[in-house]
Structures are given as structure tokens and as C-alpha cells.
Design brief:
Shape: elongated
CATH class: Mainly Alpha
Number of domains: 1
Bound molecules: fe (ii) ion
Oligomer: single chain
Distance between the termini: 55 Å
CATH architecture: Up-down Bundle
Mean pLDDT: 94
Strand content: under 5%
């Protein structure tokens, strides 16, 4: 019986769901402010986090546990792009740290399949962190011009009308 694994997997599901909601919120607000690139980055990342929920849920069911689909926290109503990136990078760092610990814990409990799932997630969360960190650096280097460029790209697209 892998009660501890089921508990850890459900904690991960809760974190992933909170990330899905938070990134969709960021996606809507970047889209609303015309920031094309950031808007699609949050959308893509939210979809990847949803696929993490799926991977975790499959393992929980395999271990004959219940999947508790409850987000770890409410959405934080952050609409400033710099604050969004800082928060997203922080969330990814925390996830990578937790999943590393939980991989080790699962290994110590002789559940190597769960360990492997957490290790796979660490790689994805580190990549997400890297993307948010890169955007933070771009914003730091190019400032508001970087955001203005995204809006211009959007304006160009919309002036061309809907894609055929
Ligand atoms: Fe994730
Ligand atoms: Fe992530």
C-alpha cells in the first residue's frame, strides 16, 4: 500500500491545478493588455500543467487512491506583467524544489515509478522557470519597449483581419 505516495501525488495535483488557474488568469490578462508573446507563453504553460495533473492522476488511480481535484490556493489577482513573471518564476522554483524532495521520499518508500514521475516533472518545471526567467531578463533589458513591441505585433495581426 502506497498511502504516502498517494498523499504526495495529491499534493502535487493541488499545486498543478493552482498553476493551471493562475496561468490561465495571466493568459487572459496579457491577452487583454495586448501582450501577445506572454499571453501565449502562459497559455502553453497552463496546458502543460494540466497534462501534469493527468500524469499524476493516472498514477494515483493506479495505486487505487482517490484523486482530490482541489487547487492548493485561490487565484491571485495579479495583473502587472512584471509581478506576473516574478510570481510564475517563484511558483516554478517551489514546484521543482517540492518535486525533488518528493522524488527522494518516494524512492525511500520503495515506489520508484512515483519517483520517476516526480523526476520528470522537475525537468518540466525547471524548463518553465527558465522561460519565465528569460522573459524577466528581456523585460529588464528592453523595458517597456519590449512590451510595446508585443502590442505592435498584435496590432499588425488584427489589422490583417482574421486568418483565412
Ligand atoms: Fe507542473
Ligand atoms: Fe510548471
Amino acid at each position: 500500500m502506497h498511502a504516502k505516495s498517494i498523499e504526495l501525488l495529491n499534493r502535487a495535483v493541488a499545486d498543478e491545478l493552482a498553476a493551471v488557474h493562475q496561468y490561465m488568469f495571466f493568459h487572459f490578462h496579457c491577452d487583454n493588455q495586448g501582450f501577445e508573446l506572454l499571453s501565449s507563453l502562459y497559455r502553453r504553460t497552463a496546458i502543460e500543467e494540466m497534462m501534469h495533473v493527468e500524469r499524476l492522476a493516472e498514477r494515483i488511480l493506479f495505486l487505487k487512491g482517490e484523486v482530490l481535484l482541489k487547487a492548493a490556493h485561490e487565484v491571485h489577482a495579479v495583473t502587472d506583467v512584471r509581478e506576473m513573471l516574478a510570481m510564475a518564476a517563484r511558483m516554478e522554483q517551489e514546484s521543482a524544489r517540492d518535486y525533488n524532495l518528493w522524488a527522494n521520499e518516494s524512492g525511500a518508500n520503495a515506489d520508484s515509478a512515483t519517483k520517476k514521475i516526480f523526476e520528470g516533472l522537475v525537468e518540466d518545471e525547471e524548463r518553465h522557470f527558465d522561460q519565465f526567467d528569460l522573459e524577466t531578463q528581456n523585460l529588464g533589458r528592453f523595458g517597456d519597449r519590449y512590451l510595446a513591441l508585443q502590442s505592435i505585433e498584435r496590432a499588425k495581426k488584427s489589422s490583417m483581419g482574421p486568418a483565412a
